[in-house]
What we know:
The structure holds two protein chains of two kinds. Chain A is an alpha/beta fold. Chain A has helices at residues 36-48, 122-126, 129-143, 145-170, 174-215, 239-256, 277-280, 283-305, 322-332, and strands at 2-11, 14-20, 25-29, 67-75, 79-87, 92-97, 100-102, 114-117, 223-228, 267-272, 275-276, 310-313, 338-342, 358-363, 366-369. Chain A has nine helices and 15 strands. The radius of gyration of chain A is 23 Å and the shape is globular. Chain B has a four-stranded parallel beta sheet. By secondary structure, chain B is of the alpha/beta class. In chain B, helix 5 (88-96) links the parallel strand 3 and strand 4 (102-106). Classes of the chains: A alpha/beta, B alpha/beta. The A-B interface holds A 144-146, 149, 153, 156-157, 159-161, 163-164, 167, 175-176, 178-179, 181-183, 185-186, 189 and B 111-114, 118-120, 147-148, 150-152, 154-155, 158-159, 184-186, 189.
Amino acid sequence: MILSSIHLKNFRRHRDSYITFSDELNYIVGGNGQGKTSILDSIYYLCTTKSYNSKTDGEVVSFNQNDFEITGSFKDLTQEEIRIYYSLEENKKHYFQNSKQIFRSADVIGKHPVVILTPNDHAISQGSPADRRRFVDSVISQASSLYLKNLLDYNKTLRQRASLLSQLKEAKNKNSLEQLDAWSEKLAAAGVDIINHRKRFINEFNPYVTNAYKKIMKEEENPEIIYQTINNARTELNANSFLGLLEECREEEIKRGSNLVGPHRDEFVFEINNINLKTFGSQGQQKTFQVVLRFAQFFYLKEKCGKTPIFLLDDVFGELDAFRSGKISSSLKNLGQAFITLTDMANFSFLERSRCDKVIHINKGCVSYA
Amino acid sequence: MQLAEPLQAAIEELSKLPGIGKKTAQRLALFLLKGENENVANLLKALHELKTKLRLCARCFNISEEELCPICQSAKRDDSVICVVEEASDVIAIEKSNEYYGIYHVIGGVLSPLSGIGPDTLKIKELLKRFESENIKEIILALNPDTEGETTALYLAKLIKPLGIKVTRIARGLPIGGDLEFADEATIGRAVSGRIEL
């Protein structure tokens, strides 16, 4: 899948930018705050309906403007036009595929697979378990809309159950305890699906991580992701054992008024040669692992979605040594379409460039081609 | 701009209706204002009768003109089977199918701790009472297949099963006349896991 052009209106620094892209590597070059990352963000918007670095849609609108619009032309088997329109006044986003409006974001996610490597990725290996769950969920959700639906259902159950638990904490009555059983059963049914899906995913995903480690970073070390959930066996979990654990923690859950058992407390441990990366990994190893995860995600989604994802690399080379950067750069060739932001082309002489690549200069939200 | 007060009031009242926004409400109010007096009088009469002549059936909480709704009064219905639904509109939907000959019980919502809706808010006690006075053999749970609907079904099953009454839930799967290829993954997944032997 290829993004051939994009049209931005009132999107951060871009008042009205029309940009055409190469089918291979696109280097987006410009100083700080000129609007490089905005281009990657707008591509991410088209693929997922969301921004990857803004919490609300309103933040993205240019100063003193009331709305933004992104239009992208995708080339797959046929041409496809995706348009997103957002207005501050309505505080509502409209998503159009070939002029037809799509109402549910679950119908969009995964249709245009996208992988993004950003400086924020340090949170995946060094941040909290929630950051790692978010990473895993985002990969599986793009590959399986069923998982995404289960996850939304599970999260809704969690919120309802938490509310009931805090009601129980304040005033005990027997009627609510029976209701708690019903919510527990629902939580177990939805939670088991998520845990088993994550188990299967980690088994499938680990070889992709190993592969990326060996082939891209040319490292001899052995990486592995270890999934820690409510049962640590490698076997499939059933709803009854989940319910058993809920039963055991019932008193404690009521005392604390919150959900204490379930996949919302899962952890994914990253290891290199059986050593915990978060605790013992060097900065270089952390960085390598983050890059490897994104390459693994790329090949995993390519296989699962049957489409080549778009690869976005935001300011990645700035933090890496020339040796690692060179290896990433050479791996990007023949991979598909990628978008790479750089502050200055001259500093990156190690980049392997081919004739099809395009260099796009951004200056104060205005676009020129080299 | 300041609108005339009666117009403003009409718009405010109309926009309280579900699915009606400020603009639609304004259009409706202006339409009524321009229209024949008789139309407005008829509408008022219909609305008034809606509130005064109708009430909830004392047995099943369906909409009714009398103490008991026509379904509860009917001698043709099988009164050993109760179909539990969320709202009266669900009764209408199931009645349209002409496939169900039992009676109903409208519980008036689903469990939702976040919105403060618990078993006491719903007509669940009333349902349990019916087991004492009526000879019920089966309960069919026909609640919506969403998070809250499913949990409410689980809750009811837990309450009713120990009483020795058969509890079933309506099947979920593909719509009749629908194409398999157009169904969403969750529906197909459910349809496959709930398959039946031929």
